[in-house]
## 1
Amino acid sequence: MTNDAVTNDAVTNDTRGGRELVEQLVFGSMAAQTVRAAVRLRVVELIGDKERTAAEVAADAGAEPRPMARLLRALASLGLLREHTAGSFSVTPAGALLDPGRPDSLTSLVRMFTEPVMLRAWEHLDDSVRTGDVAFDTVFGKDFFSHLKELPDLSAEFNAAMSQAVRETAAALPHAFDFGRFSTVTDVGGGDGTLLSGVLRAHPALKGVLYDTEEGLRQAPATLERQGFSARCSLVAGDFFRRVPEGADLYLMKSILHDWTDEQAVTILTHCREVLPSAGRVLIVEPVLPEVVDTKTAGLTYLTDLNMLVNVGGRERTRADFEDVCRRAGLSLTSVTPLTRAAPYCLIEAAAA
């Protein structure tokens, strides 16, 4: 084989690989809607831990057998089901996460992030890139969280999705940070209390305060009761743009600052600084972007960054960005530690400057 032939083969392989990547990305939205349909039709629940035919699943779902077979085969191609013989399927370990009855279920996360309300603004990503404006606000005439406030069912779904998204962090965080040197932790924007419950379980001497809006706290009493922490954790409703409750020596925020602009993030942090005792700390749990994209560790973080752009106006940040917003709030960033068991999150610790 000549050198030209080798070169041409290499170019052809590179082109083919590039084409496959682009096609996979373009069809990604279709894959997401396939998973959404599976959740809405309760496919994984109906198959359960058995092997069932498409006709059986269709009958239980109130669907037509042939289209159901096509859906199940698409789910098998995505690795969520396995087709054993023609038209007969079982659930894979990944597919089992679509069963709402499992404690590690991701069904609310699927519903929320395939919800048309979440996706409409993405149609205007190019406009947000051109202008820097939040596409959601333009499309709906109000900001994302105000819109959620008007839709109780969607707000509850959002809270459930955030609870499912935080479970891995709730398992890893308590063992990755020295909570034992503090007496009271306030989880700022803590939602239903899933994360704080994980911390309290691992540290019996610690008291907790769950701080969020009334909508954000709506599912919290049930979570704390179920976890057995109602007596050790108080609920405080409020707006972190106005104040943060005093009385804690540790203020925890997980995936809060990335929802907001730098100016808004500084406001939130300033309110933490105003009530922070001299030996207190602020602990921020968020991804920390490298200065240059590392494709081996990037994961979904950069897509999350664009989601912040189009839907809420926030952003993911580099270490330098976190240092800047902390400095402007009167805080000094003391350490950044990767949360290896819950990548891509990092523990960003800050003290009074």
## 2
Amino acid sequence: MAQVPAPRPGSALLRGGAASFTADLRSLLHNPLFSDVTFIVGKERRELYGHRCVLACRCRVFHEMFLEQPLLADASQQRQPIILSDVQPEVFLAVMEFLYTNCVTLHSCIALEVLTSALEYGLEDLRKLCVQYITGTLTVELACEALQAAVTYGQDDMKKQCLTFIEGATQDVVRTQNFRELSDQSLMVILQSDGLTIDEVELVRAVREWAHVNSVVLDRPVPDVAADVVKELRLFLLSPEELTDLERENRKDQFIPVAVIGEAWKFHALKKGGRAQPHLLRRRVGTLPREHHRRYLDPSLK
């Protein structure tokens, strides 16, 4: 690789206007003029044009991709286009916009997919911009979808911010379709939180509905689908009357194992949690008070 000569003693690096530089590079975006690589993108098989030198110097994945392409003996020959069938053209254009200009234009319909592409192409700065946009524009409808992406792709900063939003709007969030479509791992992230602003009776009802939806989608029995998540329901918070109602409802689908409900009854009989994990005995932010909370569940309430 050619080496850039070292600057002479006494030389100074002077910078021109960043805005005009960015605008000039933006003019090359998806511009067939001087383009030397073509992408066939998405199910629509849309042609998008690029410049190998720009893409390769900005993205290691493209650098390696272009190295694997055979050299052309004649510059007039056409290289074979690169097929990218599993990404939307609008999403790939957003990635290219970032590579050419170090800026990206996002909206809610593509932000999560651009984040996925940023991770795929190893673009850390683009990843940060996507997380910043997604967490800054969360809504009740989109919060669970964003949390799911954060859990799937190991984005802990994004997961934390999504969970904070869900904690503040739990009663509305659990009514959304995206809540019902969560994976069991993502749902457990929510259920392990002390900050949920919902009472446990409502939460149990929402998780039961989640289990029934996923039972149909996965073609598995409700008890199998819910086996892990029900362990995070805080049945110790329920009164004896509510446990009786829960047992009656549970006979229809065996949503919660009998042994798990039995531990809650044992808690009421012995007035202690036995082998229960400590967090299962803690009230959430939205937990409505019951008599047994004050008497023997949480001494700090006395």
## 3
Amino acid sequence: MTTFKTTKLLAVTLGASLALTACSKSEQKTETTEPTKTETTTAAGGIELLNVSYDVSRDFYKDYNEIFKKHYLAQHPDAKIEIKQSHGGSSKQALSVKNGLQADVATMNQGSDIELLADAKLVDANWRQEFPNNAIPFTSTIVFLVREGNPKGVKDWNDLATKGTEIVIANPKTTGNGRYAFLGAYGYGLHSFNKDETKTKEFAKQLLSNVKVFENGGRAATTTFAQRGIGDVLITFENEANVIKGKFGNVEIIYPSYTVNAENPVAVVKSVTDSKGTTDAAKEYLNYLYSDEAQELATKFYLRPSNADILAKHQDQFPAMTTFFPNEVFGDWASIMSTYFSEGGIYDQLAVEAQKQ
């Protein structure tokens, strides 16, 4: 957990530290399930798969792994299969895979994290064509979580720029959750101010000046807001907000008037699976995410399924929203990362200016 004052000090003394804005000793204790050994095909002839994913997906994949194993064993009666999970900030997870974590599949929350692995020749360059819907089995969107009774009267993004409103978000420099939060705010500004960049930057700067805590991942931000009682507003994914509301019951979800869609792309890490002999099982694992059973399971965790019929069945659960995908507003992910989240990019510029307020 990192307060803005701490971030300011780091920015001044380390120069490049905005790339690590949210990293502190307390944050590094965030729960993950990273294996302590390299995963390999089992000696007994069974299959071990490692799914490396973003942090707030852990509950969904815990249940999905069980239904997939039943499906897999029904199709392969003599087989043995074990599935392990590793969770953390999406971009940190992707970097871990690039640096050697032996993932069979990567299930992230933004396309740039898979593209990082494709650029490193760990994932096929045509990964978006390997699975339906551009390899996006389900999506989420960015919403606000507020205290019961909404004491700050938050209704939309502009309320988050109001003085005295304390915000908790995941770090946009290291997590997909945080990047979507920033892009949601910035996209709202462009939409509200008729693409006036100057007014949009001022709005985004005011919002960032209200950030009380940057966390190292979406689940860590949840803990800070819901369990530690810090902040007036948590900006997070719709699915995470609903999980928190169901668990704690003393919060309310606010759906902004215009917000960003979060894609959840998946890919086989073929550099690993080809060497282990698990490529077919890994493909089957990801393909089954599009099955009716898995799509229905996604709705239980408030993930919006890519199957339009199943989404329509649960329309009471998923309010209609005016949304945009990042690529529609900001260009491809390479451009987004370069323009907004690179060292000295727009986010860095606004964050430094916000610290001065």
